[in-house]
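Assemble and predict.
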Amino acid sequence: NAGVTQTPKFQVLKTGQSMTLQCAQDMNHEYMSWYRQDPGMGLRLIHYSVGAGITDQGEVPNGYNVSRSTTEDFPLRLLSAAPSQTSVYFCASSPMTVRGYGYTFGSGTRLTVV
Amino acid sequence: GIQVEQSPPDLILQEGANSTLRCNFSDSVNNLQWFHQNPWGQLINLFYIPSGTKQNGRLSATTVATERYSLLYISSSQTTDSGVYFCAVDQTGANNLFFGTGTRLTVIP
């Protein structure tokens, strides 16, 4: 099925562990981004990319790294997990040529750091 | 940064009722979108509406950019409309969205 695929759906980490959240899209979208959603809040932008080889920081980038080696994939890395990073993480993609249209979210990764 | 305020924060409706959700934003924007997050957490894009009016079935939206607000109308509500409705804006042109805190809608049979 076309869309944005996130893995894993659930993850429990211990403080200090590292992990990578995977995101892949098959719609040939130039733009991809990562958001986090905390209880009772809207989504906040972590990092984004407007094409392969190009990444930039969003509103809450500290503690996270990204890379974009292909158009399809945009992994999010937590280098040393902290309890404050307990959240639900969403990956999104959209075309850049017609901005705003086709904004598609993945189903989310629920991360708990203990 | 830009402020995005949504009202009301919570709304409970009887099935079949109509509702209006409001989004106020503090600065000019070049992108405004409405999303529905269903009870399972999935986010669905409802409208891309930086200005004007659009309709899609029982849902419609109006953005008055000069007055910095947008309205989402839900008519003849159904239980499947339950969830959280988010307004999100972009003022940079970079396609990055800044979200409001949402309106939680509960439709009871």
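The first strand of chain B starts at residue 4 and ends at 7.
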